[in-house]
Amino acid sequence: MRNFSTWLLACFVVMFWVFRIIVALMSQMHQEFIVQPFNESMEIILLFVVLACLVFIVKRKMVGALVYLLAYGMYFGTDLVSKVSLLIEDYSQLTLSDYTGMMISLIGIIIPVAILLDLLADKNRKAHPKDKKTDWFYKNEQYDRKLDERADKNNYRTM
């Protein structure tokens, strides 16, 4: 994890995970909060799944990002689709808590997609790494041209 984007996305995952813990705890204590979980038992299962996926994401494994996207896509995606379809049909039926839940669901979809895109971009960086210590020699076409021109002249004096 050398990139700032990777660290930033990992911090967003942890912050969203802590937020979901707070949502689950407030729901279990039967207190009002900004949003309510869609399914309490599934929410608790998802918390543990995301914790395992977070380890894989930090280790830059594609499996962790795919499972994270699949889990959050199934959980938040269904809610987001139903709220958007209600919004398209008749927006007067939605309350403020519905809009807040829709925003949380949108964030729950955006973060896994961003992590997957970051990992896919990182695969290219791993396949073609840049090393400043050696690239000046091996990837310097100007140096290769100078070497070729010097080698072609053969102006050596012999005694």
| Order of secondary-structure elements | HHHHHH
Gross morphology: elongated
Let me know the largest β-sheet: none
Uncertain segments are none
Q: What is the number of E strands?
A: 0
Mean pLDDT: 82
Q: What structural category arises from helix and sheet content?
A: mainly alpha
**Helical region count?**
6
Cα distance, first to last residue? 59 Å
Briefly characterize the structure:
The chain has 159 residues and is an all-alpha fold.
Overview of the structural elements:
The chain is an all-alpha fold. The chain has one domain (4-130). The chain is 78% helix and 0% strand. The chain has six helices and no strands. It is elongated.
Features:
single chain; 159 residues; mainly alpha
Write the layout of secondary structure elements.
Elements: H1 4-28, H2 40-58, H3 62-89, H4 96-127, H5 132-138, H6 141-153
Helix pairs in contact: 1-2, 1-4, 2-3, 3-4
